[in-house]
Amino acid sequence: MTEHSDELTGPDLAKGVAVSSIHAGQLVAGHAFGEPVLLVHVEPNWFAVGGKCTHYGAPLDQGVLVSETIRCPWHHACFELHNGAASCAPALNDLPSYDVAVENNIVRVTRKRDHGQLKGEGHRARGSPAPERVLFEAKPTTGPESVVIIGGGAAGNACAEMLRREAYRGPVTIIDPDPDAPYDRPNLSKDYLAGNAPEEWLPLHPREFYAAQHIEILSGLKVTEIEIQSRTVHLSDGSSRKYGCLLIATGATPIRLDVPGGDRIAYLRTLADCRAIIGKLGAAKKAVIIGASFIGLEVAASLVTRGLKVSVVTPEMLPLESVLGTELGTLIRNVHEQKGVTFCLGRNVTAVDETSVVMDDGTRLDADLVIAGVGVRPNLQLAESAGLMLDNGLAVNEFLETSASGVFAAGDVARWPDAYSDLRLRIEHWVVAERQGQVVARNMLGARDRFDDIPFFWSAHYDKLSIQYIGHVERWDETRIEGDVMKMDCAVSYIVGGRRKAMATINRDRKNLETEVELETELLLKPPPAVTLEPTEA
After folding, report:
1. How many Å separate Cα 247 from the centre of its chain?
2. Euclidean distance between CA atoms 249 and 148, whole angstroms
3. How far, in Å, CA of 230 to CA of 243, rounded?
4. Cα 433 from Cα 90, distance rounded (Å)
5. Where are the beta strands (DSSP E) in 341-454?
6. What is the pTM of this model?
7. Measured distance CA(92)–CA(108) in Å, rounded
8. What gap in Å lies between CA 166 and CA 78, rounded to an integer?
9. How far apart are CA 388 and CA 402, in angstroms?
């Protein structure tokens, strides 16, 4: 990602520009009425929408045009040009949209549109903007009698929102033991922990949004049992809820280390976890991070930014080499070492005491704070006790439906048949979880949309290193590198059987986005596979 500014740039589109100066497909960054605006000509139409992505503010003129949609260069959100609707995560809020007029070879943005309209219309086209209010029906005339969502993370929140975009009027309930959900979990290990983002930035929406959408959030409560036959969930307060459709999006739990003194080890998964870590920073000068995972290294970077001396202990000989390869692993190590991080490679932690960490070679590292990031396990207890089919996760079909009709799964728990790789995957990526939640919502309402999105994630280390990764490979035959890895200007392709199956980029946002489109195009040429799992009625 690159730096961006709120300063208005480019032409004043309200005054207009010459039609002849803009070719078809050109992305014109300008402004109108004091706001950044993107003007696009997709023959024969002209479109104008907000110029900044509503996720993290990326400049959309650096994105990629796909038909009549624009994709964000940073995290690959997708917006409809005809109305600004956020049609694909991670952006959840719509862009403003504008009317455009063409006269005497001048194209002008004439006014900002009012998106206020009622939800719950009899029919809403795919890619509709999110209206401001819901015509709520306690007993809906169409769709399931109610929707219960277990988990208020990426998948659960995205599902609830998409249900309303798709005109579902019935009861929607999100149940989550986390009292703070839903919030932007990726930011916990990045800007929030580093002290660069205030806590008020973390909620995905203000609580008023959920009230206006008639999305009920039962926070601080656990689902203790799912009764498939009666379509009922039981809660920790003794109450129960009936459902017409159910989404299991219970996420994952950090793997905890079983070593002497292990109760001193902190883990980062929730906002409460992050608050607890921040609360210990005042007296801390030295920290040890166990595990050179993405989250472990992001935490290391954030603590260095806070002024701590950080050591990272990992059994790997090079950070993230098994995921990104030797070249990027070397770069990541170098960037962290330049910031003062000490790596203890090829080592494991055998014990933790009051003031230090003990490694398997007997070496002690002084530690006022110890944090582990060694992976997570999917939360499958509810699904298993309900008798749902498991397969290194909760097994779902192409439509993200489990072995029980009307019960869906998404996010860290779901293992689905990936159309591109022809493998069954369970991937712990925020954007994947959100997009799965959106597909589940449509399928709950009767669509038969296959989940066939290309997996995407990003990882940020300090202000200087941001890695974007599109696709998925667990092993590869070779890597092909464009650019200079050590100058942090590169695209690394992961080749399997002579074909590029994934790409990691640094400071080549558009290249990563173009690769996503290329991989999607390859997928379109493949015949759809047979459905791998047919749900059964209770």
Report:
1. 18
2. 11
3. 9
4. 10
5. 342-345, 349-352, 356-359, 364-366, 369-372, 376-378, 394-395, 407-409, 414-418, 423-425
6. 0.94
7. 28
8. 17
9. 7
Residue 321 has pLDDT above 50, yes or no: yes
CA distance 70 to 64: 6
CA distances from 119 to 70, 213, 303 (A): 24, 9, 44
Per residue in 234-277, pLDDT tens?
Answer: 999 999 999 999 999 999 999 999 999 999 999 999 999 999 99
**CB-CB contact of 50 with 85 (8 Å):** no
What is the DSSP annotation of 119-185? E--S---TT----SEE---SS-SSS-S-EEEE--SHHHHHHHHHHHHTT--S-EEEEES-TT-SB-G
Do residues 284 and 369 make contact, with C-beta atoms less than 8 angstroms apart?
A: yes
Reading the block at residue 383, the tokens are 């699904």
Compute the distance between CA of residue 392 and CA of residue 377 in angstroms, rounded to an integer: 10
* Other Cβ atoms closer than 10 A to 44: 6
The DSSP output letter for 390 is B
Q: How far is it, in rounded angstroms, from Cα 390 to Cα 366?
A: 42
Joined together, the tokens standing for residue 178 give 């986390």
Q: What band does 373 get if pLDDT is binned at 50, 70 and 90?
A: very high
Both tokens of residue 506? 């640094």
Euclidean distance between the first and the last CA atom of the chain, given in angstroms as a whole number: 48
CA dihedral for 12, 114, 64, 52, sign (positive or negative): positive
Mean per-residue pLDDT for 343-364? 98
- Give ∠ CA 174-176-182 in degrees, rounded to 5: 75
Measured CA to CA, the distance from residue 53 to residue 93 in angstroms comes to 9
Is the CB of residue 431 less than 8 Å from the CB of residue 89?
Answer: yes
353 Rama class: left (phi>0) / alpha (psi -120 to 50) / beta: beta
What 3-state class would DSSP assign to 1?
A: coil
Q: How far is CA 15 from CA 100, 114, 334, in A?
A: 11, 21, 50
3-state class (DSSP) for residue 213: coil
Q: How many C-alpha atoms does 37 have within 13 Å on its Cβ side?
A: 29
- Give just the sign of the alpha carbon dihedral 166, 169, 171, 176: positive
Q: What is the pLDDT of residue 127?
A: 66
